[in-house]
Amino acid sequence: MKTILKATTVLALVLNVAIGTAKDSEINLIKANESNSLVLTLDKASVDLTVRFLDMDENILYSGKIENGTVSKKFNLQSLENGRYFIVTTDTNKIVRYTLAVEGDKVNIIEKEETVKPHFRKTKERLFINFLNLDRSAVSIKVYDEENRVLFSETVNDEMVVEKAFNFEGAFAGNYSVVVSDAKKTFAENFIVD
């Protein structure tokens, strides 16, 4: 019975993530007619979608927010030095990172990497975490108080779906940070107790 319940829960979460991803903005990066330009197109852009253009040292060359609706942003890379550059888009559900190579007057898209972010849901006294961990890597969950003291620490191994709930009922007033880390990224969410 426990196995059926767990399998049903996992299936429901996977379907929820799949449906949520289907509703996300579609992000595409394509070469423009000019050999040294790229066009980033977004359909159904979320309100909090940010776009950053980074150089090879991770310095920000451009940063901006995208409004609702279909959007396109053209990047003219004519004046850039040869090397690698990155275009990174971030919304509430995922991070998409493009790696680019600039060689003379040519620009090539080398790689597209998507990272699914954990889903944090808050109520007045609780914080719920759902994280789809497809590669089943070790996931670390920590809770910090305002003075950066670790109040809770757990590492979850070999789980495809990582779920955790924190009850802040009766906690001292203040700001708390919940940090979720896997092999690639670290994500944080703040929780305020009045």
Please tag this protein with its features.
Immunoglobulin-like; 1 helix; mainly beta; single chain; 4-stranded antiparallel β-sheet; 194 residues; disordered N terminus; 2 domains
How many distinct folded domains?
2
| SSE sequence, one letter per element | HEEEEEEEEEEEEEEE
How many E strands? 15
End-to-end Cα distance, whole Å, is 40 Å
Q: Name the CATH architecture of the largest domain.
A: Sandwich
Shape: elongated
What is the rounded Rg? 20 Å
Helix content: 10-25%
CATH level-3 fold name of the largest domain? Immunoglobulin-like
Poorly predicted regions: 1-23
Described by strand count, sense and barrel closure, the largest sheet is:
5 strands, antiparallel
Average pLDDT for all residues: 82
Question: How would you sum up this structure, described in words?
Answer:
The chain is 11% helix and 58% strand. It is mainly beta. It folds into two domains: 14-116, Sandwich (Immunoglobulin-like); 119-193, Immunoglobulin-like (Sandwich). A hairpin with a 3-residue loop joins β6 and β7 (94-103). It has one helix spanning 2-23; strands at residues 26-31, 37-45, 49-54, 60-66, 69-76, 83-90, 94-103, 106-116, 119-122, 126-132, 139-144, 150-156, 161-167, 174-181, 186-193. The relative contact order is 0.13. The N and C termini lie far apart (40 Å). The strands form four sheets. A five-stranded antiparallel sheet has the order 4-3-6-7-8, with no helix packed on it. A four-stranded antiparallel sheet has the order 12-11-14-15, with no helix packed on it. It has a three-stranded antiparallel sheet with strand order 1-2-5, with no helix packed on it. The longest helix has 22 residues, at 2-23. It is elongated, with a radius of gyration of 20 Å. The protein is built from one helix and 15 strands; from the N terminus they run αβββββββββββββββ.
